[in-house]
Write a structure and sequence with these properties.
The chain contains one helix and no strands. It is mostly helical.
């Protein structure tokens, strides 16, 4: 009877260790998901900012080009400063 109890206790200990390892793996997976989500959000924000800046540069460049085409404009006074 004592041997059966020892075997049961050993099996119970192994089960507890496996359960702890599984819990740790789940926590690690959740942490990795949060990090990926944060990285994805940062990438989307940076991409949006780049798109906006590219549109703005194009708009300003077109505006400067139109200003130079106006009659009587002094092109020597218009400089491209970014």
């Amino acid at each position: 009877m004592k041997r059966a109890e020892e075997a049961f206790d050993a099996a119970s200990d192994r089960f507890d260790a496996a359960e702890s390892a599984l819990d740790a793996a789940r926590e690690e997976r959740a942490r990795a998901r949060r990090e990926r989500y944060g990285a994805r959000q940062a990438h989307e924000q940076a991409s949006t900012a780049v798109d906006w800046l590219q549109r703005r540069v194009t708009e300003l460049s077109d505006r400067l080009d139109r200003m130079q085409e106006l009659p009587g404009s002094r092109t020597s006074c218009v400089g491209y400063v970014f």
